[in-house]
Write a structure and sequence with these properties.
Blueprint lengths: L14 H18 L6 H8 L3 H7 L3 H12 L12 H18 L1 H11 L3 H29 L8 H19 L5 H12 L2
Helix pairs in contact: 1-2, 1-4, 1-6, 2-3, 4-7, 5-7, 5-9, 7-8, 8-9
């Protein structure tokens, strides 16, 4: 005898609402900044009840971290051209293109990262780990193919390109371009 399917309580998840909420959060973040952003504002902009937000995200930090993660798009494909240099150029230039799309919202959060530990940790786990994972994959492939010495500290070397790009932006007050990426990659990954 076949058992009837279990009934679920409540409505099924509305993925369209998720997208509307995340877009509203990103838009408001760019307009008001993190400190002045409220969950109620996001709900109103997205056209959903405030409870919808609290069911999906436990707090503003989690919502903003996911909104920025989505805003920057899916991580670019990690190229596998057979050359560490070419793979790194393709990947880092792709990251810069993605960041340009979400620049306004990301810029408003950057100032909060120093003073808001929860936001800093959430951003690090959502964005930085994703980006550095792609760089690490490229470095490890280089070691595996013999382009880089087997003694290479993969984790350390994988942090350098992204750190140098962030430092460039902090020092110059503007995001690096593809020429800067090429200079960094050539210094680190060209014999």
């Amino acid at each position: 005898m076949t058992q009837p399917p279990e009934s679920r309580r409540g409505r099924p998840p509305d993925h369209g609402a998720d997208e509307a909420i995340l877009q509203a959060a990103a838009d408001l973040l760019g307009e008001t900044g993190f400190a002045r952003l409220t969950m109620d504002q996001v709900a109103a902009r997205a056209g959903v009840a405030g409870r919808s937000l609290s069911l999906r995200w436990p707090n503003k930090v989690a919502l903003v971290a996911e909104a920025l993660h989505r805003l920057t798009g899916v991580m670019p494909t990690v190229p596998d051209t057979g050359s560490v240099r070419d793979d790194m150029l393709g990947f880092l230039c792709g990251l810069l293109r993605m960041r340009r799309l979400g620049r306004r919202a990301i810029t408003t959060v950057r100032g909060e990262l120093d003073s808001n530990r929860d936001l800093r940790l959430a951003m690090r786990s959502r964005l930085a780990a994703t980006f550095s994972g792609g760089v690490r994959t490229i470095v490890q492939r280089g070691v595996d193919r013999g382009e880089l010495p087997v003694t290479t500290d993969v984790d350390l070397l994988a942090t350098l390109p992204l750190t140098l790009l962030q430092t460039w932006e902090a020092d110059h007050g503007e995001p690096p371009d593809d020429t800067v990426v090429k200079r960094i990659v050539d210094q680190l990954f060209t014999p």
